[in-house]
Amino acid sequence: MVTEIMEKIGYVFQNRELLENALTHSSYANEGNRHLKSNERLEFLGDSVLGFITARYLFSHENGQEGELTKLRASLVCEKALHSYALQLNLGQYLLLGKGERLTGGASRPSILADAFEALIAAIYLDGGLEPVERFLLPFLEQERSQQRKVKFKDYKTALQEIVQQNPGEHLEYELKGESGPDHNKQFVMEVHLNSNVIGTGRGRSKKEAEQQAAREALKLMGYDD
Known about the structure:
This protein is mainly alpha-helical.
């Protein structure tokens, strides 16, 4: 089991007790397995290491101000995100859980998996320092950030507005350029203007849909691929 999880995370522990500690839930440690400590202390440390590496990643890859970067960091290290990282490793199958916890689905519980992922980060850090933690973490952070962008861009108007707002003085406006068809099957054509210049045209069965498509075209023009 130890060898298998090390292959998955791409790191070979010098001190394998750290890895075993990271995978030990309190329910197992308290169930007569006194020679093992729970992963709660490692989870505490891992939370801080995760926050630091995520902050450094965003500082290097995003141009937002402090408030925006703080929100982005929170989205990458929240329980939902950590749960998804743990699922990719199938971490639940390696956890040492008490009988009651395992019987009640502890191996798939988001909070337990998220905590174990943080404990694993701490174990790698204590065994090898920041560099191997970064190698381990960055693929997860990059994948999650990419997925968040895709979800965000489903609301093309909001995405376009947020981008334009980064440049004070820029002004967006949507203009109806035409409509056709019977009342039950109308087709609308909308243009989006940036400081009176047309940057996108969209068509739809409602004005809102046409505006979204116009914003989508504008985002593509700016180099943002959805």
